[in-house]
Amino acid sequence: YMITALEELYYIIYAWIENYCAMICDYLTALKNPYLLLSEYSRLWNKFALITIELNQVFQPYAELFSKLYEDKCSHLPNFPEFSMWRLAIKIWMDEIQNAFGYYLNESFRYILKKTRGEEKLIEYNLKNTKSSTDKDLPEEDSGFKDQYDLNKQKLKRILKGYYGAMDDLSHNEFSIFYWDCDNEAKTEPKVSLDSLIVQDSQNYYE
């Protein structure tokens, strides 16, 4: 009876998280702007992570009982990391959202990264063609241009940083975290794909 009850609770929780992720998918699908897509993904991921942390705490006794029964019934199979609501929720997020939007998210990241670096070259060109490179000596229109550039650059970097942080969150678990400082072992998806994209784009930029 206890096993049946645990299974029923498991499927209820699984279905709830899956439906929640499906709603996020529908929302993200409608976003065609790369800036909006990336920023909204990061915002929704942070919200989902907070909800999952709460679920993990609430259902901790259930998770411990589930792991104990698994160990008793399947002692011949590995049981690390143990079952947790956090691991379940992340698996569903990866299956339903990250795997569906990963390519488009990374391409949006690449686009914004190039946009940021392109504006850096533009402002450098404008500054080199003035009498002085200090804000004090710049003509009013050039100073305003630089101020707007600085503001836009900060916004773009926040978008990039937010998405990179989300990929970092999704790329580690109780096992891989032990190899944080080991270059070979720490390369896990989806962060490894994003890191490769950044390296490739950086090489093209500085060539």
**Shape assignment:** elongated
Radius of gyration: 23 Å
Uncertain residue ranges? 130-145
Which whole number gives the mean pLDDT?
A: 78
Number of helices: 6
List keywords for this structure.
207 residues; mainly alpha
Describe this entry's structure for a reader.
The chain has 207 residues and is an all-alpha fold. Helix content is 76%, strand content 0%. The protein is built from 6 helices and no strands. The protein has helices at 2-29, 34-58, 60-73, 85-128, 140-170, 191-206. α1 (2-29) runs parallel beside α4, α2 packs antiparallel against α4 (85-128) and α2 runs parallel beside α5. The longest helix is centred in the middle third of the chain and has 44 residues, at 85-128. The chain is elongated. The protein starts with a helix and ends with a helix. Mean pLDDT is 78; it is low at 130-145.
Fold topology:
Elements: H1 2-29, H2 34-58, H3 60-73, H4 85-128, H5 140-170, H6 191-206
Give me a quick take on this structure.
This protein is an all-alpha fold. Helix content is 76%, strand content 0%.
